[in-house]
Amino acid sequence: MKIRRLTMAQALTSFLTNQYVERDGRETAFFAGVWGIFGHGNVAGIGQALQQDTALRYYLARNEQAMVHTATAFAKMNNRLRAFACTSSIGPGATNMITGAATATINRIPVLLDKRVHAVIADFLRFNNRERIVNEDTSPELFRDVEKLGNENEKFNYLFYKATEIGAKNPQTTVKLLDRASELLDKVMSERRQVQYQIGIAMRYCEVKSDRCFTMMEPVIRELNELVSAATKLNGFDNRYLRNGEWNMTAEGGVGSLLTMLAQNAVYFALCDFERAMVLSSRFERREIRMMAQLKLAQGVLYGPPKKPLFANDEQ
After folding, report:
1. 156 to each of 81, 143, 178, 283, 301, how far by Cα in Å?
2. Is the overall model pTM greater than 0.85, yes or no?
3. Which has the least CB within 10 A, 162, 173, 244, 278?
4. Judging by DSSP bridges, how do beta strands 20-23 and 26-29 pair with one another?
5. Domains in the chain, number
6. What Å distances lie between residue 293 and 39, 60, 210, 238, CA to CA?
7. Shared domain check, 211 and 309
8. End of a domain among 105, 132, 159?
């Protein structure tokens, strides 16, 4: 076998040239070419390789964001059977591609971007998070504001929504606000609303990586098991909770809405500690509810938190 000596960039262009996809028995070259603007970091590597490898066509771009959008449009028009790669210089050139990368990601369109784009995004997020996180406890000032409120219900709402607003930006303060809100919970809510807000408070604990999210959910799971057991005995009285002997996952009514709410927000527990979340979900007594909870945990890791905020109607 003859040995080919290649630079990394030459091996890359050769690899891209030899990528094919097959659909309905028809094979198609996956990469139609490379869009690029050359500068520091890519002109001496990938630039040289593209000049030497004429099998992979190079397209000159004038704007980094525009070339990613063009690549996205091309892939979409070709039913994702063909795609473009995009390369840019290090720094501002790479950051200009981020908007295009987000568009392609949201629409699940294949576009290959230079690895340095991922590095720029990671560096930005690390810097941004470092700047935003505050370790100073600001709860005393907020507690003074709470004491000025007229009744326990107003105090609870203030504490809960302030904790939601602050979130992971100041974990220390968020935990103290949630602790105080938990103390007021049984004084201001009906039993059903208590369960809803117990789940909500547990989720907020998850966002700041506090173990209290799981300790708070353990009695909630026990209570839900009791409610489900009672609902199955009353099936058909106020709502059809069972279908062919199994729990109807789309069931309305009080118990159904609580389980739906928990399922839609299971991602927060999965992202906090997936293994503990799976153990917690195994405590559901009905097999179909247990399986759905574990499915929602796995989906949450893949797709991330829901776009609709918890208690959206209350927040408006």
Report:
1. 54, 11, 9, 29, 31
2. no
3. 244
4. antiparallel
5. 2
6. 50, 50, 21, 24
7. yes
8. 132
